[in-house]
Amino acid sequence: MVLYFSGTGNSKYIAKQIAEAIRENTVDLNMKIKENDTSPLQTGRDVIIVTPTYAWRIPKIVSEWIDKTKFIDGKRIWFVMNCGSEIGNAAKYNRELSEQKKLQYMGTARILMPENYIAMFDAPKAEEARKIVAKAEPDIEKVIAYIRNGKEFCLPRNKLYDRFMSGPVNPIFYKFFVKANAFQVNDSCIGCGQCVKKCPLNNIHLEQERPVRGEKCTHCMACICYCPTEAIEYGKKSVGKPRYHFEAL
């Protein structure tokens, strides 16, 4: 079974490619998390987790969901992480999570995809994003081949820098940077509710057709990148930056 969490569509695309190639079902973890559904899941022997990279690890809300959910008949687990540049030493924490679940850890693979974290970086324009996706296709095929043949992924890079970023930096990043209060809505908002629908933490609701946020946020960028009128800004950091989501390519 292929389970995916996706902020702006990269992980969903990769997951669908893998699932089609190995003839497995997919599970949308955004909806599972949104519905607070941690009921036991009939995964079958092989579990493939596809996620973006948040602060050099898989998203905290995904690891928490995995920890709480029983995988019935699960034996082996692969992690496929997409990112704009690096995954750090995420493999260490994926291995630990696998051991907690009593699943055979089959490795962590990195796939470079278009950047979406416009709270800090620039997202590519559509033409550049399409080129990045095209370059990623051979890596997706390699991942599929490893899974299809029941092989472990090759070991990812594991330098001091990687260990530092996934280790002490990750919790610091969440504590000081992953907040909801910097998001603002301007007068171009049409009250469509797209941001409410996309938020995996149910952190947004409409009041008088205007989005209102709570304090929970995972910085998936779905609200800001799917807004049809670009009415959402992340303070001044996102002003003038292209919005990215995979379906727009």
UniProtKB/TrEMBL annotation:
Domain of life from the UniProt record: Bacteria
Keywords per UniProt: Iron, Iron-sulfur, Metal-binding
Pfam families reported in the protein's UniProt record: Fer4, Fer4_4, Flavodoxin_5
Molecular function GO labels: iron-sulfur cluster binding; metal ion binding
Residues annotated as domain 4Fe-4S ferredoxin-type: 181-209, 212-237
Protein name: Flavodoxin
Species of provenance: Dorea formicigenerans
Lineage: Bacteria, Bacillati, Bacillota, Clostridia, Lachnospirales
